[in-house]
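For the sake of transparency, this paper describes our internal protein records without simplification. Because each token names a local backbone shape, the row as a whole describes the fold. One such record is reproduced below, unchanged from the form in which we store it.
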Amino acid sequence: MCGLAGFAGAGDRADLARMSSAVAHRGPDGCGEYVDEAARVFLAHRRLAIIDLGGGAQPMWDAKGEIGVVFNGEIYNHLELRRELEALGHRFRTDHSDTEVLVHGYRAWGEGLPARLNGMFAFVAYDRPRRRLFAARDRFGKKPFYYSHGAGGLAFASELSALLAHARVPRQLDSHALQKYFAWGYLPAPLTPYARVAKLPGGHLLVFDCDDASLRVRPYWRFAIEPLEPKADEAALAEELRARLAVAVRRRLISDVPLGVFLSGGIDSSAVLAYAAGSAGKDLVETFSIGFEEPSFDESRYARLAASAFRSRHHERVLTMEQARAGASRLLEQMDEPTGDVSILPTHLLSAFTRESVSVALGGDGGDELFAGYAPFHALGPARRYRQWVPPMLHRLLRGAVERLPVRHGYMSLGFRLRRALRGVEWPPSMWNPVWMAPASPQEIGRLFETPLPAEALYAEAIAAWESAPFLDEFVRSLFL
């Protein structure tokens, strides 16, 4: 990863230096700054070198010095875009920098650039002739981008801590957002813990005019589920899926530094390993896993099986409770926003372990969302039948009995699943999934805050997604959410 920061408007070089320093850990391989005093534009970049190690320093400019870019991420189709731009007459100074593709791509296509990109990215382009800043974030928001817009102008950064290093960025807590956190376990974009600080949502772009300080934010892409043909050929669909996975993995193996695979032994990461091993030729793929002393959480034996099947060079480390406690303290010091997903701890430790050997790792995150792998998907049918057959009085008796069951701390214990299931079915189907997954129920959130939001406001994003889904089937609506 890399780190970017900057602002247009109020502020000075000291603000820029503090912001850049706050993201220094994201980019140990280089740093760069640019200041346009006349336009009051300040840019900073911290680089982790992955592609074009010698020629990818940032901010990167075109030959005329008119378009400058700071960029965090990787553009997987940059070679195809480079050929397209060269055919349009653009001349590149590097031989394979994906950052330079953004520079020329913005000049050629302007606001149409993000829709052409296949990758994970957050970038800012400074258009000097037009005196404007253009920013975009990848479709699912893999790469972070925070910003604050006000009378002082626009400030932005890869991390919240870097944004707050600017003296004029406000720090007023947002009670509305904090309640959303307890409802979701994270803060849905564009929310942050602060009232006048936002996350640019995935699939969105931003345009800031340096002359009148106006800001425009709009989507350039929206997720959609397309219906299958009634008599779709399952074998043909499976083959298409294999082909798409193979291409996706092969694109992500393009790197000028060593890379590996996070391997849990589940279907998703094992599939990534399978296609990585097939693309690596004679080279062995490096795989990395974290095991747990608690048996119900430990999947390391499945990772070893997958590593053996695909002949990877496997690395494994067991996480003890003492290491978890120590790691949690360090992680909390680095986190910009709270998260209720405890998997961030082993992921953080796995990343540190992996970084001892390689700079880049592929993973299987996202498969359960795309292929309905989570338990709540399978609970939809039983929940619907429960609502039809169980009267409210009996439900209250059942829930009271389940709440008195002893708490067990194993993974997905029966008591845990029953408590969650009965908590969720009290609400409309559009709220089942988020309430099942929530750190706190709407009633508990109501007791925590002086002016609690109604449940419909807490889960407005879920309700909107449910109602805008292109099908009425509960399963597909939940998948869409």
Notes: Residues 234-252 form the longest helix (19 residues).
